[in-house]
Amino acid sequence: MxxxxxxDWRDLPEDLRGAAVAxxxxxxxxxxxxxxxxAARQAADSLAAPLAVVSFAPHPRRWFQPEAAPFRLMNTDxxxxxxxxLGVERxxxxxxxxxxxxxxxxxxxxxxxxxxxxxxxxxVGFDFTYGKGRRGSPxxxxxxxxxxGFTVSVIDRLDDPDGLKLSSSAVREAxxxxxxxxxAAILGRPFAIQGEVVHGEKRxxxxxxxxxxxxxxxxxxxxxxVYATRTHLADGRVIDGVANLGIRPMFEIEEPLLEVWLLxxxxxxxxxxxxxELVALLRGxxxxxxxxxxxxQIDADAAAARAVLSA
Length: 311
Fold this sequence. Notes:
This protein is α/β, with parallel strands linked by helices. The protein is 32% helix and 24% strand. The strands form 2 sheets. A 6-stranded parallel sheet has the order 1-4-3-2-5-6, sandwiched between helices. The two termini are 32 Å apart.
C-alpha cells in the first residue's frame, strides 16, 4: 500500500478529510507507536473511514531546541515505509512552525483536527501532550472531541513481557549503549541509517577496503565503533558488510561518518541513496599505529561480521 503524504491541514478537499488518525511524533514507529496506530485502525474499520497518522516536520523537539544534539531515529522516507505495512493510507506531516507552536490545546483540536482535517477519531498514547506549553492531555483531547464531534482512544503504556520499555527514549538508550538487539526488539526492525553516498578521502582504497560513506545528519549517534551491517541498495539488492561509525581517531577527523565496506561487492555508488542496518556492534573505535595494523583489524572485523550475519 502506498502512503499518501499531505503537508498541510488548511483548505483540504473533502477526499483528504474524515480519517481516523493516530497523533504523535512517531520517531522510530516502534512497537509502542504501532499499538497507537492499531487503535486508530480499529476505529477506522468501525467507522469505515481512512486510516491516517498525524505527525510533524520538523520534529517539535528540533523546533524548540534547534541547538540540541542529533536525535532522530528515522527520516521521512523511512517513516512512510514503516507506516505502510500497518495499513496507514495517509500521513499528515504538518509543518511545525511558529504559528503551530503558539496554538493552545483548544486551538489545535479545533483549527487543525476538526476544521482542518475533519477527523472522526483520534488515537493517542497515555503520555501525549500538545498545544502551547504542552498543556493539552489525552483527557483534555477527549473533552475537545466531545464538543467537536470526534471520539478519542488513549493507549496505556505498553511494555514488552520481558520488561522492555517501548519508547523512543528507550531506543536511544539502547543505541548509545551499542545494544543493537535491544534497539531492534523495541523498534520491531534493525535501526538503519539512510543517506546519499558521498566522496570521502578514499584512504580505504589504498588498503583494498573501499567504503560507501554516508553523513549522519540529524540521526542520533549510536555508540561509536565497528558494526556488522546489511545495506539496501537503490536497485533492491541487500549486501552484507562491516562499517565504522564514528570519527576515526587515527585520522583525527571531526565529523562522524558511517563508512560501510560492502562485502563481495564491486560498483560505484556515489550519489545513490542507500540504507544500512546496524545489526550488531563488533567493537569500539580503536587507534592504530600503522595502515598495516588497521588493515589486519579490518580483515578480522569482516570475518566477525560474516559470522554474525550468517547466524
